[in-house]
C-alpha cells in the first residue's frame, strides 16, 4: 500500500509539474505574441509579424497538450486524492470554475488568432490577441488563488480573505514575471536551435534577431524574480512559519539552494550572452572592456555568496567535501542581501548597455555559434528552474496538503493511494517536528 | 455692446495674449492623452478649494485636532462630503499625476526646448508628495501618530543628517504638538504656496513652447533630413505640418472640460458612496494599532522592507537618488527622437520603472491587507 501511495504522489506531482510548465508557457506566450504583433504594426517591421505568427503556431500546438494534462491532473486528483480534492473544490469552487472558463476563453481566442492571420482586419486581429492574453492572465490569477491558499490558508469565510490570502498577490506577481521570463528564454532557445540548424543567411539573421529580442524579455523579467521572490518568502514566513522553516532551514533547504544556484547561472550566462551580442558596439571602448571584466568578477563573487547554504547537512553529497553540519560563517546575513543587490544592480546596468547596443545593430546572422549555445543553456536552465521552484513550493508544506488544515495522512485514510488505517506518527503530524535538525550520522537522516 | 466690452478689456489687460493661447496648435492624434495635465490641474484646484473649507474648522492643536475632525464630519453641514472630496481627490491626484508623467516621458515631451517644463513638473511632483505626506498626520488619530513616528524614524536612518532631519520635522525626538503644527504649516501654507508658484511657471512654459512633443512632431522631418545625409544627433525640429494639428480652442478645450467634469463627478460619487469617517468601527486600543501608510506610499514602504537592519540607509539613499534623478532626465536623453518605438531603451526602462513601482505597491498592499 505504501508503494501505491508513493505512486499516487508521484503521478500527481509529475502531471502537475508538466501541466504547469506548459500552462505558464502559454500565458507568457499570449502576452508576448500580442506584444510582438502590436510592435510589428507600430514599426511596420516584418520580423515582429513573423515572430508573433510563429508564437501563435507554437501556442496552438501546446494548448491541446495543456488541456489534456489538465484533465489528467483532475482525474488523478479525483481518483487518487478524493478527500483532498473534494475539500479543495468546495472551498475554491468559484475560482476553479472561473479558471476553467478563462482557459476556455483563452483557447477560443487563440485558435482564431492563428487561423485568421492575414484574413481579418488588423484591429480585430490585435483585439483577439489581447483578449486571449487577458483571459490567460485572469486564469493564472485564479489558479494562483488556489495554489497560494494551499500554502498560506486563511479562514474560509469571508471569501475575500480566502482568496486574498497572505501569499496570493506575491505568488501571482512571481508567476506573472516568471511566465514572461520563461517564455522569453524558451523562445530564445528555440530560435537558437533554428539558427544552428539552418544554413540560409537570411534565416540565420532572423533567428539571431528573434533570440536577441526574446532575451530582452527573458532577462528583464528575470531581474524582477528575486525581488518578488523575497517578498513572497516573507509572506510565507509570517503566515506559515513551519513551511518557511522547512524550505529555508529544514530538510528541503537544499532545493532552495539549488534554486539560487540556477538563478546565479541564469544571470551569469545571460550577462555573457548580452556582452557577446553587444560587443560590436563597445569593441573599441577600453573602459568597457575593463568594466566587463570587473562585472564578471563581481557577479561571480556575489553568486558564490548568494548560493552559500547554511544547513550543510541537508546538501546532497556535501559530506564528501566537509564535515561541518552548518556553514561555519553562519547565515551570512546581511551579506546575502548585498550579494543579491549587487547581482540585480549589475544586471540592470548590463541590461541597459545591451539595449543601448541593440539600437545600433543592423547586421544580424553573423554572431557565431557561442551566443546561440548560451541561449540553449539559458532555456534548459529555465525549465529546470521552473520545475524546481514548483517542487520547492509544493514540498514546503509537507506533510500538509492544505497547510495547517489537512495532512497527507488524512488523505491516505480514504484515497486509493493508501489504505492504511494507522494514524499518523507524531513526526508526520507535526511539521515542526519533521523540520527539527537531526545530527548527521543517524540512520534516519541517511534514509532521508 | 459685446465688442465694446471686449475692447475695454483688451486695452487694459491685452486679450490678444489669451486669444493667441487659444490658437496654439495641438496634434490631432492622441489628443485625449494630452488631457492628463489639465486633469492634474483640476484635481489640484479641487484640493485647494476643499482644503480651504476644511481650514475653517480644523484646529491644529494636539488636544483638539482629532475632535475638530469629528466635528467637521458629524456636525458641520456637508462637512463629511467636503472632507471626503478632499481625500478622494488626493487619491485620484496621485494616479493622474503618475499617468501624466508617464505620458510626457513616453512621448518625449521633455526634450528640447521643453527641459525646463519637465524640471518644474518634477518639482511639482515632489511638492505634491510632500503635501500628501504632511496631510496624513493631520487627522491626529492613532494611525496618524504612527505615520509620523515611522516617518521620523525612517528619516533618522539617513547618513549624517538623519537625526537632524527628524528633529527638524518632528520638532523633537517624538511626535507631539510641535510635529502637528509643523506638518500643518507645511501642508496648508508652505507647500501649497510653492505648488502655486510652480504651477504658474509650468503653465507659462507650456504656453510658450506648446504642450505637445508627440511622435508625429518629429517623425517626418527627421526622416527627410536623414535622407539628406544629416546626422540624427544634429537634427532639431520643433514644428509640425499644419494638417496634423488643430487649434487648442475649441476641440482640446472641449476634451479638457469633459475630463474635468468626469473627474469632479467621480470624486463626488466616491465621496457620497464611500465617505471617509474618523470612526472605523470601534477604535482598537493603542497597543493593537497597526500603522498603515497611505496607498501612494506603499511602494516606498515595500522598497524599504528590502533593506533590513543596518542596510536601511542604503535603501533610503537609493530611493532619494531616484527622486533626485527625475529632473535630470532631459539631460541624460538628449537625442531629438521622440517616438517611443524608435527610442526602445528609454521606453523599456520607463515601462520597467512603472511596472516595478506597481509591483512593489501591490506586494505592500497584500501585506497590509493580511496583517
Task: Explain what you see.
The complex is a heterodimer of chains A (448) and B (371). Chain A has a two-stranded antiparallel ribbon. The longest helix of chain A is centred in the first third of the chain and has 42 residues, at 2-43. In chain A, strand 1 and strand 2 (406-407) form a beta hairpin. Chain A is mostly helical and 448 residues long. Chain A starts with a helix and ends with a helix. The model of chain A is unreliable at 417-424 and 437-448 (pLDDT under 50). Chain A has one domain (2-276, 365-447). Chain A has 17 helices and 2 strands. Chain B has 371 residues and is mainly α. Chain B has a domain at 30-277 and 333-339: Cytochrome Bc1 Complex, Chain C (Up-down Bundle). Helix content of chain B is 67%, strand content 2%. Chain B has 15 helices and 2 strands. In chain B, strands 1-2 form a two-stranded antiparallel ribbon. The radius of gyration of chain B is 23 Å and the shape is globular. In chain B, 32% of the residues are buried. The interface between A and B is medium-sized, with 32 and 25 residues.
Task: Set out the fold topology.
The complex is a heterodimer of chains A (448) and B (371).
Chain A: H1 2-43, H2 46-80, H3 82-91, H4 93-115, H5 122-151, H6 159-163, H7 168-197, H8 201-239, H9 241-248, H10 253-282, H11 286-307, H12 335-358, H13 370-396, E1 400-402, E2 406-407, H14 408-414, H15 426-429, H16 431-435, H17 443-447
Antiparallel strand pairs in A: 1-2
Helix pairs in contact in A: 1-2, 1-5, 1-7, 1-13, 2-3, 2-4, 4-5, 5-7, 7-8, 7-13, 8-9, 8-10, 8-12, 9-10, 9-13, 10-11, 10-12, 10-13, 11-12
Chain B: H1 2-13, H2 15-22, E1 25-27, H3 36-55, H4 65-74, H5 79-106, H6 115-135, H7 142-156, H8 162-170, H9 177-209, H10 215-227, E2 245-247, H11 248-273, H12 298-305, H13 312-325, H14 329-332, H15 344-369
Antiparallel strand pairs in B: 1-2
Helix pairs in contact in B: 3-5, 3-11, 4-5, 5-6, 5-11, 6-9, 7-8, 12-13, 12-15
Amino acid at each position: 500500500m505504501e508503494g501505491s501511495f508513493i505512486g499516487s504522489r508521484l503521478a500527481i506531482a509529475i502531471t502537475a509539474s508538466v501541466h504547469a510548465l506548459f500552462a505558464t508557457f502559454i500565458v507568457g506566450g499570449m502576452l508576448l505574441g500580442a506584444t510582438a504583433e502590436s510592435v510589428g504594426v507600430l514599426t511596420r517591421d516584418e520580423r515582429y509579424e513573423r515572430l508573433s505568427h510563429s508564437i501563435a503556431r507554437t501556442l496552438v500546438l501546446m494548448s491541446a497538450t495543456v488541456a489534456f494534462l489538465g484533465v489528467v491532473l483532475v482525474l488523478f486528483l479525483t481518483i487518487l486524492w478524493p478527500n483532498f480534492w473534494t475539500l479543495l473544490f468546495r472551498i475554491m469552487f468559484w475560482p476553479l470554475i472561473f479558471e476553467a472558463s478563462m482557459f476556455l476563453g483563452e483557447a477560443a481566442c487563440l485558435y482564431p488568432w492563428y487561423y485568421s492571420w492575414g484574413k481579418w482586419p488588423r484591429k480585430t486581429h490585435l483585439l483577439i490577441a489581447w483578449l486571449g492574453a487577458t483571459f490567460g492572465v485572469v486564469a493564472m490569477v485564479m489558479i494562483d488563488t488556489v495554489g497560494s491558499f494551499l500554502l498560506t490558508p486563511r479562514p474560509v469565510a469571508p471569501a475575500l480573505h480566502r482568496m486574498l490570502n497572505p501569499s496570493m498577490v506575491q505568488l501571482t506577481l512571481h508567476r506573472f514575471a516568471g511566465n514572461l521570463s520563461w517564455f522569453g528564454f524558451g523562445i530564445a532557445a528555440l530560435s537558437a536551435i533554428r539558427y544552428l540548424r539552418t544554413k540560409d543567411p537570411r534565416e540565420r539573421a532572423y533567428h539571431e534577431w528573434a533570440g536577441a529580442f526574446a532575451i530582452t524579455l527573458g532577462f528583464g523579467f528575470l531581474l524582477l524574480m528575486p525581488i518578488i521572490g523575497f517578498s513572497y518568502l516573507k509572506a510565507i514566513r509570517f503566515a506559515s512559519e513551519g513551511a518557511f522553516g522547512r524550505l529555508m532551514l529544514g530538510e528541503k533547504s537544499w532545493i532552495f539552494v539549488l534554486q539560487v544556484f540556477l538563478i546565479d547561472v541564469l544571470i551569469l550566462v545571460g550577462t555573457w550572452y548580452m556582452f557577446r551580442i553587444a560587443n560590436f558596439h563597445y569593441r573599441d571602448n577600453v573602459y568597457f572592456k575593463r568594466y566587463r571584466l570587473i562585472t564578471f568578477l563581481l557577479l561571480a563573487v556575489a553568486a558564490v555568496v548568494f548560493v552559500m547554504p547554511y544547513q550543510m547537512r541537508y546538501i546532497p553529497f556535501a559530506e564528501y567535501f566537509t564535515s561541518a553540519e552548518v556553514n561555519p560563517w553562519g547565515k551570512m546575513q546581511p551579506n546575502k542581501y548585498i550579494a543579491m543587490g549587487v547581482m540585480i544592480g549589475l544586471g540592470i546596468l548590463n541590461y541597459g548597455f545591451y539595449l543601448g547596443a541593440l539600437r545600433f545593430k543592423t547586421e544580424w546572422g553573423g554572431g557565431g555559434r557561442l551566443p546561440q549555445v548560451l541561449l540553449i543553456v539559458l532555456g534548459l536552465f529555465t525549465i529546470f528552474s521552473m520545475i524546481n521552484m514548483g517542487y520547492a513550493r509544493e514540498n514546503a508544506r509537507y506533510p500538509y496538503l492544505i497547510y495547517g488544515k489537512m495532512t497527507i495522512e488524512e488523505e491516505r485514510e480514504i484515497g486509493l493511494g493508501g489504505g492504511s488505517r494507522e494514524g499518523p506518527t507524531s513526526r508526520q503530524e507535526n511539521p515542526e517536528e519533521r523540520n527539527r535538525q537531526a545530527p548527521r550520522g543517524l540512520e534516519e537522516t541517511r534514509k532521508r | 455692446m459685446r465688442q465694446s466690452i471686449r475692447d475695454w478689456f483688451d486695452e487694459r489687460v491685452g486679450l490678444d495674449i489669451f486669444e493667441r493661447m487659444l490658437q496654439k496648435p495641438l496634434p490631432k492624434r492622441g489628443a485625449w492623452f494630452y488631457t492628463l495635465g489639465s486633469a492634474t490641474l483640476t484635481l489640484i484646484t479641487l484640493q485647494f478649494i476643499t482644503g480651504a473649507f476644511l481650514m475653517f474648522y480644523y484646529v491644529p492643536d494636539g488636544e483638539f485636532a482629532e475632535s475638530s475632525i469629528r466635528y467637521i464630519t458629524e456636525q458641520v453641514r456637508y462637512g463629511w462630503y467636503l472632507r471626503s472630496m478632499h481625500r478622494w481627490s488626493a487619491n485620484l491626484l496621485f494616479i493622474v499625476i503618475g499617468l501624466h508623467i508617464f505620458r510626457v516621458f513616453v512621448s518625449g515631451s521633455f526634450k528640447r526646448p521643453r527641459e525646463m517644463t519637465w524640471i518644474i513638473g518634477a518639482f511639482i511632483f515632489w511638492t505634491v508628495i510632500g503635501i500628501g505626506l504632511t496631510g496624513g498626520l493631520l487627522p491626529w488619530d492613532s494611525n496618524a501618530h504612527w505615520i509620523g513616528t515611522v516617518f521620523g524614524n525612517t528619516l533618522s536612518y539617513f547618513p549624517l543628517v538623519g537625526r537632524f532631519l527628524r528633529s527638524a520635522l518632528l520638532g523633537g525626538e517624538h511626535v507631539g504638538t510641535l510635529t502637528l503644527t509643523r506638518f500643518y504649516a507645511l501642508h496648508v501654507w508652505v507647500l501649497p504656496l510653492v505648488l502655486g508658484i510652480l504651477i504658474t511657471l509650468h503653465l507659462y512654459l507650456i504656453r510658450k513652447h506648446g504642450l505637445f512633443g508627440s511622435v508625429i512632431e518629429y517623425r517626418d522631418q527627421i526622416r527627410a533630413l536623414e535622407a539628406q545625409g544629416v546626422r540624427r544627433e544634429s537634427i532639431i525640429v520643433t514644428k509640425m505640418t499644419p494638417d496634423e494639428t488643430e487649434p487648442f480652442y475649441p476641440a482640446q478645450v472641449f476634451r479638457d472640460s469633459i475630463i474635468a467634469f468626469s473627474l469632479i463627478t467621480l470624486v463626488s460619487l466616491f465621496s457620497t458612496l464611500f465617505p471617509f469617517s474618523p470612526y472605523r468601527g470601534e477604535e482598537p486600543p493603542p497597543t493593537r494599532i497597526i500603522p498603515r501608510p497611505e496607498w501612494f506610499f506603499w511602494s516606498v514602504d515595500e522598497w524599504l522592507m528590502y533593506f533590513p537592519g543596518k542596510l536601511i540607509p542604503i535603501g533610503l539613499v537609493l530611493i532619494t537618488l531616484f527622486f533626485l534623478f527625475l529632473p535630470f532626465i532631459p539631460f541624460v536623453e538628449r537625442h531629438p527622437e521622440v517616438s517611443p518605438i524608435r527610442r526602445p531603451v528609454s521606453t523599456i526602462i520607463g515601462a520597467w520603472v512603472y511596472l516595478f513601482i506597481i509591483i512593489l505597491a501591490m506586494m505592500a498592499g497584500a501585506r497590509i491587507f493580511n496583517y
